Design the sequence.
């Protein structure tokens, strides 16, 4: 595999880690300690601490940029650069 493909895999892994380790831990902690219910996390608005809002934005930024980088990595891979 080429370097762009390895970086693409690393970026995808980073996107998942950002979701699981930041957003997931925050949500499940609040659910298991009965501070909030699972339905209290709406998808259309972000509520919570500054850390949680920043983690959500970081994850969304990764999700928005991953397809762009994937397209670039695919072109580089096909072109053999």
Sequence:
């Amino acid at each position: 595999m080429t370097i762009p493909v390895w970086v693409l895999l690393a970026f995808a892994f980073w996107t998942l880690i950002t979701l699981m380790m930041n957003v997931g831990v925050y949500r499940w902690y609040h659910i298991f300690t009965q501070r909030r219910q699972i339905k209290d996390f709406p998808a259309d608005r972000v509520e919570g601490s500054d850390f949680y809002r920043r983690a959500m934005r970081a994850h969304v930024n990764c999700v928005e940029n991953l397809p762009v980088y994937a397209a670039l990595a695919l072109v580089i891979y096909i072109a053999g650069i």
